[in-house]
Amino acid sequence: QVQLVESGGGSVLAGGSLRLSCEASRSNLSDYAVGWFRQTPGKDREFVAVISRIGLSRHYADSVKGRFSISRDNAKNTAFLQMNSLKPEDTAIYYCAAGSYNFRAQNYDYWGPGTQVTVSS
Questions:
Q1: Cα(13)–Cα(85) distance, integer angstroms
Q2: Partner of 87 at 20 to 30 A CA spacing, among 18, 49, 110, 119?
Q3: What is the 3-class SS of the chain, one letter each residue?
Q4: Which of 29, 46, 50 is nearest to 38 (CA)?
Q5: CA triplet 15, 96, 93: central angle to 5 degrees?
Q6: pLDDT of amino acid 91
């Protein structure tokens, strides 16, 4: 089984940037597509972005398209989410997940504990 842990969260002003990392252990991250999701209190976990195993395919939620960029470095067993032009609406706990390439949280098998991102205006 793969274990995941996120890092890089924090507090920024609107318009700022953060780079989240998702580091895998116990297994090769290259065996999995990696998705990023976010969640705020009272809301369902929301799809943000996904990248295929080798990184040839990427997809983004409309709400972050053009601002966020997903990438991975399989040699380092790590995936990334570069977040630019952040908005207060981006405030959430961000989770990375490993599994098959899809947009639904329920279809991912493995999850990190999450990292808080707070964007203030």
A1: 10
A2: 110
A3: CCEEEEECCEEEECCCCEEEEEEEECCCHHHCEEEEEEECCCCCCEEEEEECCCCCCEEECCCCCCCEEEEEEHHHCEEEEEECCCCHHHCEEEEEEEECCCCCHHHEEEECCCEEEEEEC
A4: 46
A5: 50
A6: 97
What Rg, from alpha-carbon coordinates, does the chain have?
13
User: Amino acid identity, residue 91?
Assistant: T
Half-sphere exposure of 99 (CA within 13 A, CB side): 16
Written as six digits, the tokens of 33 are 């597509």
Positions of the chain with pLDDT lower than 70, given as ranges: none
